[in-house]
Amino acid sequence: MPDLEKMLGGRLAWLAARRKRSKEEVILLLMCSLSIPSILPFGIYRLLQGSWISAAVDLALVGAMLAVILHVLRTGRYKAASLGVTLFYSAGMLATIHLRGLSLVYWVYPTMIAAYFMLRPAVALAINSVSMLVLVVILLRELQLLNLFTVVVTISLVNLFAYIFSHRTGLQNQELHTEVERDFLTGVGNRRALDRKLDAYAGERRPQMESSLLLLDLDHFKQVNDQHGHATGDQVLVRLCQLMRNHTRSSDRIFRYGGEEFAIIATGAGLSAASRLAEGLRAAVAAEPLIVGHPITVSIGVAGMDKSDKPADWLMRADKMLYAAKQAGRNAVRVDSLAPPVENTEQV
C-alpha cells in the first residue's frame, strides 16, 4: 500500500504544485472551465435528440477544453494552448452554424470576444477576420443581402471595439509594470523587477541558455556621501548605471539591488563569459573619473543561475562571492567555485 501511494503521489505531484501561475494561464484555465458547463448541456441534449453530428461537435469542444486544462495545469505552457483553443472555438462555432442554421449565429459574438482574452490583439483580429469571411459564405444562402450586411457590420464593430480595448489595456499594463519596476533615480530595474525576472527564469519550463548573476557594490561609497554630499552620491550612481549600460550587452539586464549595490543578469552567459564581463566592468569603473579627484571602484561577485536551485540560492552565492571580493581588498572580481576566480592586481 505505501508503494502504491508513493507511485500515485509521484504521478500526481503536478496537481499539488504551488507554483504561482501567470495571468495568462489563469485566464485560459478560466475560459476553458466556463466553456465546459456552457457547451456540455447542448451536447447532451442534441445527443438525446439524435443530432449526432452537432452533438459530436459540442462534445469534441468539451473534450478539447478538458485536455487543455490538464495540459496547462501540468506543464504551464499556455501560448500554444491559447492559440489552439481559439482556433478550435472558431471552427466549432462555424461548424455549429453550418449544421444548425441561422439561429445559432449569436455564438459568434462571445466566441470572437474570447479570442482577445487569450491572444495578442493582432492575432485575435486575424483569426476573427478569417472566421467572419467563412461565416459570410455560410450565411449567403440563409440571409437576404441587407440582413447579411447588418450581421457583418455588427460583428466588425464588436471586433473593432474589442481590439481597441485589448490593445489599450495591454499598453497601459506595460507602462504600469515599467514604472513600478523602475528605480526612480537611475532608471534601471529595481529589486521588485529583479525578483520577478529571477522567478520567471526559474519557472520557465523550456530549456534555456546558461546564464549568470552578477552582484556589484561600490567600494567605500559612504565616504563619497560624507565628503561630497548625497546629491553628488546620487550623480555617481546615475553615471555608474550609464557606464554599465555601455559595457553590457543588450540582452543583459541591470537592476538596483540596494543603496549602492547593483545586480546584472547576464543572459546566455556561462560563468567564464560572465567573469570576463565582470572584469571588464571592474576595469571600466576604475578607469572612469566618476568624481574628479576621488577614485571610484567596485567589487563584483558572480554566480551561475542553475535551475536546480532557487533564485534565493543564486543571490546567496553571488553575495558570498561579493563578500569574498571585498575581503580580497576590494576593486576585485570573485566567481563562484564552479569556475576559477578572476584575479587582478589592482587594490584600493
Topology:
Blueprint: H1 2-11, H2 23-49, H3 52-75, H4 79-100, H5 108-118, H6 121-139, H7 145-180, H8 191-203, E1 212-218, H9 221-228, H10 230-246, E2 253-256, E3 261-266, H11 271-287, E4 298-304, H12 311-327, E5 333-335
Parallel strand pairs: 4-5
Antiparallel strand pairs: 1-3, 1-4, 2-3
Helix pairs in contact: 2-3, 3-4, 4-5, 4-6, 5-6, 5-7, 6-7, 9-10
Number of H- or I-type helical stretches:
12
Percent of residues in helices: 55-70%
Could you list the spans in which at least 5 consecutive residues all have pLDDT below 50?
1-18, 339-343
Question: Averaged pLDDT, please?
Answer: 84
Q: How many whole angstroms does the radius of gyration measure?
A: 28 Å
Major beta sheet summary: 5 strands, mixed
For the largest sheet, list the strands in their spatial order. Answer: 2-3-1-4-5
What is the end-to-end distance? 66 Å
β-strand amount:
5-15%
Which shape, going by the Cα principal axes?
Answer: elongated
Structural class call reads alpha+beta
Number of strands: 5
In sequence order, what are the helices and strands, one letter per element? Answer: HHHHHHHHEHHEEHEHE
3D architecture notes:
The chain is 64% helix and 8% strand. By secondary structure, the protein is of the alpha+beta class. Strands 2-3-1-4-5 form a five-stranded mixed beta sheet, with helices on both faces. The chain starts with a helix and ends in a 13-residue tail after the last strand. The N terminus is likely disordered.
